[in-house]
UniProtKB/TrEMBL annotation:
Protein keywords: Endoplasmic reticulum, Membrane, Transmembrane, Transmembrane helix
Listed name of the protein: Reticulon-like protein
GO cellular component: endoplasmic reticulum membrane
Region (Disordered): 19-38
Subcellular location: Endoplasmic reticulum membrane
PANTHER family from the UniProt entry: RETICULON, RETICULON-LIKE PROTEIN
One of the Pfam families matching this protein, by short name: Reticulon
Signal peptide: none
Membrane topology label: Multi-pass membrane protein
PROSITE patterns cross-referenced by the UniProt entry: RETICULON
Segments forming domain Reticulon: 67-252
Top-level lineage group: Eukaryota
Amino acid sequence: MAEHKEESVVESMMDKISDKLHSRGSSSSSSSSDSDGEGTAAAVKAKIYRLFGREKPVHSVLGGGKPADLFLWRNKKISVGVLAGATAIWLLFEVMDYHLLTLLCHCVILTLAILFLWSNASTFINKSPPNIPEARIPEDLAVNVARSLRFEINRGFATLREIGRGHDLKKFLIVIGGLWILSVLGSCCNFLTLFYIVFMVLYTVPVLYEKYEDKIDAFGEKAMIELKKYYAIFDEKCLSKIPKGPSKSKKH
């Protein structure tokens, strides 16, 4: 009887040890499966194609802040107001054939006449004269705008110089194609209409892209694959046959 009791105690202890080992193994396997699942999800997320290699949200790409809120229609009242103002200006100059200098002069004449009459009539009607704020352009703002404009102009000149030296064929073709499209658009419409078209594109395309981001990125990925195929064919049949000058290493 004592031997049977000892055997039963040993068996029960062995069963408990095996149960603990199985529970640890299952927990470790579940944690490893969870980590594997998270890793695969992160890998899938990293493999998602974004148009032009974009890694940030659309709001950050547009610079963030109030300009990005304006283009993405975060505040619909302000966005509608800006759109209505731009459309009214385009209608004044293009449809009604109003001239910019004439419009500016008429606005200044009307504003000065109202303020002059109001200031002189305030003594007779016992009302306070208009409070005209002092308008000045801050020096820091003017310097920052000038520096930014200078940097962008110099970068454009440097890009044109690199293209002119024949270092980047792809960039050369892109710039030539863009300038040709601009020349065609310029022959079809004047500068103000072209500016209004660009404004409407900037005002509608980002918000539509943000709304249908996944569908547009999928279509863009397919389009880029096809473009790379056609570019490889064009490079093989035409560009590769163009004689190239000696490289820098051979010159030295």
